[in-house]
Amino acid sequence: MSERVTRQAASDAVGGLGWRYMLGTLRASVAVGSLFQAVSVAAHAVAACGEQADEHLRADLRVDQVVLTLQTRKLRTVTAADVELAKRISASGVQTEPGDLQLLEIAIDAMDIAAVRPFWSAVLGYAEGGPGEPLTDPAGQGPVVWFQQMDEARPQRNRIHVDIAVAHDEAPLRVEAALKAGGRVVSDARAPSFWVLADPEGNEACVSTWQGRD
Fold first, then answer.
1. Are both 115 and 29 inside the same structural domain?
2. Residues 64-94: tens digit of each pLDDT
3. Is 214 a member of any domain?
């Protein structure tokens, strides 16, 4: 059950149950009307996962929703076990749906990634992970930080941009909303993996999905 699954396979397996594949995780939202109800939903999800809950399930409880996240922690990716647990949770009666799911990423353009990466790990208190992997918040609360290789210095351009990871079926709507709000498309050459957008002053943000990355 620890077999890794592709993004496409994970999305296909649980998309109809209200789960979405996002940045190496399966996520779903459950609408609630109180914090007491949120606790009950989380307890129900834990019971559905049984003894596997500690190694796979994370629950973010709010007064109006519970966000459930599944990932095989030791591998930091989605496996067949996570897919099975998502199915179990949904089958148990928890009303899982895409909701307003999104994940924020911070990207730093760098000439020498190996030189700047330790600084950001130290100043943020983030875990470094393996080579090529993003920096992550050990508490699982802050956005991931990743580094993009520059070919040449760009002293007159901002070298930090924001990535917003959304569910694949939400991305076109998010891009459309940004354009209506005064933004423009810098590049859609890699869509639906990501769209590069800019505000009226040229500051960039990417709307990204899992698609086109397998």
1. no
2. 999 999 999 888 899 999 999 999 999 999 9
3. no
Can you count the helices (H) and strands (E) in the chain? 6, 10
The domain of 66 spans 7-91
Distance between CA atoms of residues 75 and 177, nearest Å: 35
Integer angstrom CA distances of residue 130 from 51, 112, 133, 136, 146: 28, 16, 5, 11, 12
Contact 14, 80 (CB under 8 A): no
**Do 108 and 199 lie in a common domain?**
yes
Predicted TM-score of the model (pTM): 0.80
Taking the C-alpha atoms of residue 57 and residue 72, their distance in angstroms, rounded to an integer, is 8
Q: Which of 77, 83, 85 is nearest to 44 (CA)?
A: 85
Position 2 in a domain:
no
At 36, phi and psi to the nearest 5?
-60, -45
Region of 127 (left: φ > 0; alpha: ψ -120 to 50; beta: rest) is beta
